[in-house]
Design a protein that fits this description.
It is a single chain. This protein is α+β, with helices and mostly antiparallel strands and 656 residues long. The protein has five domains: 197 residues, Orthogonal Bundle (Triger factor/SurA peptide-binding fold); 105 residues, Chitinase A, domain 3 (Roll), CATH 3.10.50.40; 105 residues, Roll (Chitinase A, domain 3), CATH 3.10.50.40; 92 residues, no CATH class; 93 residues. It contains 25 helices and 21 strands. Strands 15, 16, 17, 18 and 19 form a five-stranded antiparallel beta sheet that branches. The protein has a four-stranded antiparallel beta sheet with strand order 4-3-6-5, with helices on both faces. A four-stranded antiparallel beta sheet has the order 8-7-10-9. Strand 12 and strand 13 form a beta hairpin. Helix 17 crosses helix 18. The longest helix is centred in the last third of the chain and has 30 residues.
């Protein structure tokens, strides 16, 4: 299938998002009384015209035929039910979900978060923290109690007590007993967003006010700030610390790492030594290579600092000790922070993936609430509230078995109704969240608020095609493109491959299209040395075999001449200009840095190609033949009416 013939199949997928929305819309043609309009035709033509290589298809009359044929195929695909194929449905749904992201987030908020994340990624902060745990959905009194406790601890820190001592004494982070609250260095996207924001807004030496995250309240003490060191790739050799504190075993381990270090200094291969001696089984088989990492990603600060301290690739450290054992590190590559434009996609993906996405969702929801009015049936809502008891807190509450009276709409958004039964199911499901808000009526209000937000967002998403004509165009064109592909595969491409009799008949009928021109079987000898080619020429004139020539002119260590045999067709693109179509040996000649000589061994007269020799081209032509005839059959199968008067007006407008 020639690409210019199916240009409407997939070039249509990419829609012009800047077409004139106020263009006058008239019916250009109908297929079985279904109308197709002038605005779509002109938009698609203008979008795809630069992609079309066949000048005839730029003619509006010709393009109308192409466009009409395209729409006939889509009608046929729908008639065959290809739109119900689960694979097609899933692929279209996946594409729509991906495309909708451009319409379901606040562009300004997204841009601000990208810039904020990038600016923060330029720095690394070392911080310690104290955590007072409180459930994300805790009752207000419990939340206040945790906040006041964190505030009291902060007062102790502000009065001069050491933060690390307070962390050991009060922090409910299980690791605080060992690390005294020290989190090491981190940059953007390494901590939950609220924690990160508080840390980056604070100054060195400052202890923040209690900061709420889903884990509870944090006091954050800023120990140090520095420029981001980027990421690094290293290899290492590690000798593990003995499980016992036996001095003999410890000395043996130290001796081993020193011996390996001596071998490296003597010039032995680092990777081979890592493979033999490193006791890090995850990396030893890879020559000690570790995945690239940034500050704070490893459990050993000593290891990170030593690695980042290396400046030149392929240099290595002296042996050093970490809490895990003894290491020698070799620098492979340093990866500095990229420019903003290089990181935009990566940052956008992180924003949508992590808890920053709530900001995007909240921003969009606020806009949707101003656009659509969600009206609630208050009587029905109060009836539901009266059903929910304190069993909710113990995850034992169940919605009523008889739900007939709840089958009405609890909420309406524009002309769309949301059933009360859906909210009842949401209430039952939300018990697992163990929301601790009291009394129970406030729990229902809390869940309903989130439920309403979700329904508004769903409604907005489901109606993107109505709200944004450009979105609707892209989705429709992608949908049609997928259908066309499935249809062509089913009706044309596979049929052309499998219909061996039809293919053979087409080949026989059109055999004049598949002809060899005059051909020659040629030996081509080449070398960078003119005297070698001259010697090869003499041997060729004596009709010596190729192997004999190679053995005569090449040595065990040096290949002086290369000889290849080719079948060359007269007039072909790869036909050498110095080959003459008659038997014999040419003069030596030079092209670029090489000398050549040709020997025409045999001439083959012009003849028809066999089907096997040209099968790929025959299949392609046969597919096109089937398609061209198929479109004619479709015109007979479907009722097609073209409004010529409208088309003439459209042509006049488009030619201006």
């Amino acid at each position: 299938m020639k690409i210019d013939k199916i240009i409407l199949g997939f070039a249509l997928i990419v829609s012009s998002l800047t077409f004139a929305q106020n263009e006058k819309k008239e019916i250009l043609f109908t297929i079985n009384d279904k109308p197709y309009y002038t605005d779509e035709f002109s938009r698609v033509y203008n979008k795809n015209i630069d992609l079309v290589k066949d000048e005839s298809q730029k003619d509006l009359n010709q393009y109308l035929e192409l466009f009409l044929g395209y729409k006939l195929k889509i009608n046929k695909a729908n008639q065959l039910g290809l739109q119900n194929n689960p694979k097609y449905i899933n692929e279209l749904k996946s594409y729509r979900t991906q495309l909708s992201k451009n319409y379901t987030s606040d562009v300004k908020v997204t841009k601000a978060l990208i810039e904020e994340g990038y600016n923060r990624s330029q720095k690394e902060i070392r911080a310690s923290h104290i955590l007072i745990m409180v459930d994300e959905n805790a009752a207000p009194e419990d939340t206040l109690k945790a906040y006041n406790r964190a505030l009291d601890i902060r007062k102790k820190a502000m009065s001069g007590q050491k933060f690390e001592d307070l962390a050991v004494q009060f922090s409910e982070d299980p690791s605080a007993k060992e690390n005294k609250g020290d989190l090491g260095y981190f940059s953007a996207f390494r901590m939950v967003y609220a924690f990160e924001s508080a840390a980056f807004k604070a100054k060195k030496g400052e202890t923040t006010m209690p900061t709420r995250t889903r884990f509870g309240y944090h006091l954050i003490n800023i120990v140090d700030t520095r420029d981001n060191r980027g990421e690094i790739t290293v290899s290492h050799i590690m000798i593990l610390k003995p499980t016992s504190a036996d001095k003999t075993e410890v000395d043996k381990a130290k001796t081993t790492i020193q011996d390996v270090y001596s071998k490296i200094k003597q010039g032995e291969n680092f990777e081979s030594l890592a493979n033999q001696f490193s006791q890090d089984k995850n990396s030893s088989q890879k020559g000690g290579l570790l995945p690239r990492f940034a500050s704070g990603q490893l459990s050993s600060e000593e290891f990170e600092n030593t690695a980042f301290g290396l400046t030149t690739p392929n240099t290595y450290s002296e042996p050093f000790e970490s809490q895990f054992g003894w290491h020698i590190v070799k620098l492979i590559e340093k990866h500095p922070i990229k420019k903003l434009e290089e990181m935009e996609r990566e940052l956008d993906a992180k924003i949508r993936k992590y808890d920053r996405s709530r900001l995007l969702t909240n921003s969009l929801t606020a806009k949707i609430r101003t656009k659509y009015a969600a009206k609630r049936d208050e009587k029905l809502y109060e009836k539901i509230k009266s059903l929910v008891t304190d069993k909710f807190y113990t995850v034992t509450w169940k919605q009523p078995e008889d739900i007939k009276e709840f089958e009405g709409n609890l909420m309406t958004i524009e002309d769309y109704g949301v059933k009360a039964t859906l909210f009842l199911s949401e209430l039952e499901s939300q018990q697992k969240s163990k929301i601790k808000i009291k009394p129970i009526g406030k729990v229902v209000d809390y869940i309903y608020k989130n439920f309403e937000d979700a329904q508004l967002n769903n409604f907005y998403n489901d109606n993107l095609e109505k709200e944004f004509p450009d979105f609707a165009n892209v989705i429709e064109e992608y949908r049609d493109g997928l259908l066309l592909f499935d249809l062509m595969e089913k009706e044309i491409w596979e049929k052309a491959k499998l219909d061996t009799l039809g293919l053979k008949n087409y080949y026989n009928t059109n055999i004049n299209k598949y002809q060899w021109k005059k051909r020659a079987e040629v030996l081509i000898a080449s070398s960078t040395k003119e005297d070698i080619v001259s010697k090869a020429r003499k041997l060729l004139k004596k009709n010596k075999e190729v192997d004999f020539i190679k053995e005569s002119l090449n040595t065990k260590d040096v290949v002086n001449v290369m000889i290849k045999k080719e079948m060359l067709e007269e007039g072909a693109e790869n036909f050498p200009k110095n080959v003459v179509m008659k038997p014999g040996v040419s003069e030596t000649y030079k092209e670029a840095d090489f000398y050549f000589v040709n020997s025409v061994i045999k001439l083959i007269p012009a003849s028809a190609k066999t089907l096997e020799e040209t099968k790929g081209r025959v299949i392609n032509d046969y597919q096109q033949y089937l398609e061209d005839n198929w479109v004619g059959d479709l015109k007979k199968e479907f009722k097609v009416t073209v409004n010529q008067e409208v088309f003439e007006r459209l042509k006049t407008t488009m030619k201006k």
